[in-house]
Specification:
Order of helices and strands: EHHEHEHEEHEHEHEHHHH
Largest sheet: 6 strands, mixed
CATH topology of the largest domain: D-Maltodextrin-Binding Protein, domain 2
Number of helices: 11
CATH class of the largest domain: Alpha Beta
Number of domains: 2
Strand order of the largest sheet: 3-8-4-7-5-6
Structural class: alpha/beta
Oligomer: single chain
Helix content: 25-40%
Radius of gyration: 19 Å
CATH architecture of the largest domain: 3-Layer(aba) Sandwich
Shape: globular
Length: 302
């Protein structure tokens, strides 16, 4: 078992999901906990430099999951539904186990965006119209969460148009009716004259291998909790992480830091599991018949 003095391989991907981790690293909070962290960077769909194509057949072929399955990452976070899907399907497929070990620190902001000159002024107007998302990632799940209060499932149409910058270009060309974006690309879209139709926060979930013990995870989460306190006071010193992801399309003054929201990691409750898992199964986005006992392990909070 890993102790809190042993090296831990921690994933870093998009700033909107990982900002508390980045702040904890920059401010020395992990070191204060006696942790020796190796930060493993993987491509994210918010980064302008991301060149990989989304794999449809299996989420486990995507960069972060591939590195994790090979043992190159011990702990990571992404959208709650995405973690549920991956944990459940990895368990069923005999892949390297990943347990849900906490509700994460970042409430990432997502938005459905349309062209400024479009005739779409409310969610109902997207009935049967293509909305570009990253399949089986946060922009997909949150788009469904936002739109399902306005349209029946049979009228919701999602499609793939590549990374965040690629789908903005697809929107400008009229290839899709709307796009689902997260920060910093919501701010980019607004700067470039596109219109936000609706937006919502989405909580991350934290996943970890069975090799990480409870005290080590607790130390990781304490460091993130301190970072959340820093961000609550003033997130602007860390806006550069978002600006850098856009490759020059955004300046610090253009980034809407008011959309940032963070809170200390929390235990992942049975009620939360029931609601999230059943919703994901209801949209046929993961397999049925899994259980809280097989997938969730709140050992960091014991």
């Amino acid at each position: 078992m890993t102790t809190n003095r042993t090296s831990v391989k921690l994933a870093v991907m998009n700033a909107v999901h990982d900002l508390p981790v980045l702040v904890a690293r920059d401010e020395g909070f992990f070191k204060d906990e006696g942790l020796n962290i190796e930060f493993v960077t993987t491509p994210g769909m918010a980064q302008v430099t991301t060149s990989h194509k989304v794999q449809f057949d299996s989420v486990f072929e995507r960069p972060l999951e591939s590195v994790y399955n090979e043992g190159g990452i011990d702990q990571f976070r992404m959208c709650e539904w995405g973690i549920v899907k991956r944990a459940v399907e990895a368990e069923a497929s005999g892949l390297r186990s990943r347990k849900i070990v906490a509700l994460g620190a970042s409430m990432s902001k997502f938005a459905i965006v349309v062209s400024a000159d479009s005739n779409f002024y409310e969610p109902e107007m997207l009935k049967g119209k293509p909305i570009a998302v990253t399949p089986n990632n946060g922009s997909h799940f949150v788009a469904l969460k936002m739109i399902e209060g306005f349209l029946g499932k049979e009228h919701v149409k999602v499609t793939n148009a590549g990374s965040m910058p690629q789908r903005i270009e697809a929107l400008k060309k009229g290839e899709v009716a709307a796009v689902s974006l997260m920060e910093p690309w919501i701010s980019v879209a607004e700067k470039e004259g596109l219109r936000v139709l609706m937006e919502a926060h989405s909580t991350r979930a934290e996943a970890a291998s069975d090799d990480l013990d409870g005290p080590t995870l607790a130390a990781i989460f304490r460091a993130q909790a301190r970072a959340c306190e820093v961000l609550a006071k003033d997130p602007t010193p860390y806006v550069h992480y978002f600006v850098n992801e856009t490759g020059g399309r955004l300046e610090a003054k253009d980034f809407r830091h008011q959309r940032l929201l963070h809170a200390p990691p929390q235990p992942y409750t049975r009620e939360r599991w029931d609601d999230t898992y059943n919703w994901t199964v209801g949209w046929e986005m993961t397999i049925p018949d899994s259980s809280f006992e097989n997938i969730v392990d709140n050992r960091a909070f014991e």
